[in-house]
Design brief:
The chain is of the alpha+beta class and 142 residues long. 26% of the residues lie in helices and 26% in strands. Strands 2-1-3-4-5 form a five-stranded antiparallel β-sheet, with helices on one face. A hairpin with a 4-residue loop joins strand 4 and strand 5. The longest helix is centred in the last third of the chain and has 23 residues, at 117-139. It starts with 10 loop residues before the first strand and ends with a helix.
């Protein structure tokens, strides 16, 4: 009969958004300390996304203490003006219907954007000159 795994304390992690994922910055065992550190990290970098999560040991996992179930405690979203507490039940967003168009009309851009042709031409000219100089340097030595 296998021996039961020892229980592990609940942990709290502070994570920062990185690309399409989250990077764990700190893990602790006290909620009050984790909230204080969370507040400090938000104060240091108020334009980043942060989240405070609770990590519960997953005893049913086959990874021997390496897998946890997590619960969101607090989320800092700078685009929403600050703290966002998790709702008891997530509410899906309502789809916004597209405005009706006249039949046969083509969609125009809202704003015309001028192409930076001068920059493109300057880059092509510099590249051509650099290529010509390299050619002359290596071909002229014969």
């Amino acid at each position: 009969m296998p021996t039961p795994r020892p229980t592990q304390p609940t942990r709290f992690a502070i994570q920062k958004a990185r690309g399409k994922g989250w990077k764990t910055l700190e893990v602790g065992e006290e909620l009050a300390h984790a909230k204080a550190r969370f507040d400090r990290m938000v104060g240091v970098n108020p334009r980043a996304y942060f989240r405070l999560i609770q990590l519960d040991y997953n005893a049913d996992s086959g990874y021997e203490g390496m897998e946890f179930n997590w619960t969101l405690i607090e989320l800092y979203d700078p685009t929403q003006g600050g703290r966002v507490r998790p709702a008891a039940k997530p509410v899906p967003p309502k789809p916004v219907p597209a405005p009706p168009r006249k039949p046969g009309s083509k969609r125009k851009a809202d704003e015309a954007v001028a192409l930076p042709l001068r920059i493109y031409l300057a880059v092509i000219l510099i590249g051509t000159l650099a290529g010509g100089l390299v050619y002359l340097h290596f071909a002229g030595g014969r």
